[in-house]
Write a structure and sequence with these properties.
Keywords: Signal. By secondary structure, the protein is an alpha+beta fold. The chain contains 4 helices and 9 strands; from the N terminus they run H-E-H-E-E-H-E-E-H-E-E-E-E. It has one domain. Helix 1 runs antiparallel to helix 3.
């Protein structure tokens, strides 16, 4: 377990460093506005990484709650979910992006910090084995924190993932 965590920690740190540097970041990047993708660019990057997405409305309009949109998603969020897929080797399907209908706040879906993914045995097991349990969110969702500080919360029908770095 310790060896796996060490490898995950190193890979996670490298992914975060790469994301910051690819966004033109420096040590002060945390105080700058996050770099964003438009829907088409994010969708192309996710597709190239083998990540699927779905929407109940079969659409990508950010202003429609039944769509799944990546418009104005943070580059670090896209890099984060791609990094998670690569580390976990799990199939990933995004069920929620930056569209209306999610909870608000600074670190929200709308502001590009979050994605929702479909739970699978592979995803569930990998998160629970490789991340630290971090208690329950105010809504009762169990939270797991990555070595980079990103938070994976298990809601009733999906994983709600917050990429802070």
């Amino acid at each position: 377990m310790m060896k796996k965590r060490s490898v995950a920690a190193v890979l996670g740190s490298l992914a975060v460093l790469g994301a910051v540097l690819s966004a033109g970041g420096t040590a002060s990047a945390a105080t700058a506005a996050p770099a964003k993708y438009d829907h088409a660019t994010a969708a192309a990057l996710l597709k190239a990484a083998g990540i699927a997405w779905t929407s109940s409305g079969n659409c990508s309009d950010r202003d429609t709650t039944t769509c799944t949109s990546f418009e104005q998603i943070n580059k670090t969020t896209v890099n984060g979910i791609i990094g998670f897929k690569n580390l976990s080797k799990c199939g990933i399907t995004i069920t929620g992006g930056t569209e209306k209908g999610h909870a608000s706040g600074t670190y929200s879906h709308w502001n590009g910090y979050k994605v929702d993914i479909r739970p699978t045995t592979c995803v569930d097991d990998w998160i629970k084995k490789n991340m630290e349990y971090d208690g329950k969110r105010s809504d009762g969702a169990p939270m797991y924190k990555s070595v980079a500080g990103n938070v994976y919360a298990k809601e009733s029908s999906h994983w709600d993932i917050l990429y802070v770095v």
